[in-house]
Design a protein that fits this description.
Number of helices: 4
Strand content: 15-25%
Radius of gyration: 21 Å
Structural class: alpha+beta
Shape: elongated
Number of strands: 3
Distance between the termini: 71 Å
């Protein structure tokens, strides 16, 4: 199976959906934050490994705890995935912290701030010209 084949895309989508469901409803670990989401999944073409990108709303400590909780529940998650997704091999899951959403929000705030300053300076300059 090639990396960008239709089958691989379908497998990625199915694993993503089921993994999100398992994390949301199946794990009772108190270290895992309630606002944890799966932002992406990359299953290797040989179905042996899987990278799961996780986004956590919270501070650095909450992110670290959530990743630790997910890593300790890895075998349980893999078993649940094997029950719900019909694959020849159930991939070994590696959780990776995805900070792209947080980075995007930060960049958006910075752009808004620069835009407001730019607008304020234009208004201030226009005010001086009319006097």
């Amino acid at each position: 199976m090639r990396k960008n084949s239709i089958k691989n895309t379908r497998v990625n989508a199915e694993v993503h959906k089921e993994l999100a469901e398992i994390i949301r409803n199946g794990i009772k670990d108190p270290r895992i934050q309630p606002m944890t989401s799966v932002t992406g999944v990359e299953v290797a073409p040989d179905l042996k490994t899987c990278k799961a990108y996780i986004s956590v709303l919270g501070d650095a400590e909450a992110k670290k705890d959530t990743l630790a909780g997910l890593r300790s529940a890895e075998s349980y998650i893999r078993r649940q995935l094997a029950k719900t997704v019909n694959l020849r091999n159930t991939p070994e899951i590696r959780f990776i912290l995805d900070e792209s959403i947080e980075y995007g929000v930060t960049m958006s705030k910075l752009i808004d701030e620069v835009s407001r300053k730019d607008t304020a300076s234009e208004v201030h300059e226009d005010g001086e010209d009319s006097e």
